[in-house]
Specification:
about 120 residues, mainly alpha, 6 helices, single chain
């Protein structure tokens, strides 16, 4: 294989392709570096705490003043009536669904009560 300098002398198009490819890569790296610096600058101002509290503050509502979105999603966990495609919070008595399980598990505690795992 010939060195790259000889290949460029024989076919100058290869040199131009390498030149423009280098320009594109440097441009994309510049955009990436700019984005990283911009996000770091945003982080300084976007996440300033509104309420000062100690590191060991146990009350969720105090933390919720500094992190409202996280606190709202935490408060949604109080809703226990949610039922998803995979049954969510609903408890299903598997012995009603399939009575043959009573015979299968005779002698075990499962034969008296067996609820699907949540």
């Amino acid at each position: 294989m010939k060195p790259i300098s000889e290949q460029i002398k024989n076919k100058p198009v290869i040199g131009w392709i390498l030149f423009f490819a280098t320009i594109v890569v440097v441009f994309l790296l510049g955009i990436l570096a700019s984005s990283i610096l911009e996000r770091r600058a945003e982080a300084v101002y976007a996440y300033t705490p509104q309420v000062k509290h100690s590191q060991f503050e146990p009350r969720n509502d105090v933390w919720g003043k500094n992190f409202p979105r996280e606190y709202q999603s935490y408060m949604k966990t109080k809703d226990t009536s949610f039922q998803s495609m995979y049954n969510g919070n609903a408890m299903i008595d598997m012995l009603e669904v399939d009575p043959r399980l009573v015979v299968l598990w005779a002698g075990y505690g499962f034969s008296k009560e067996y609820n699907q795992g949540r």
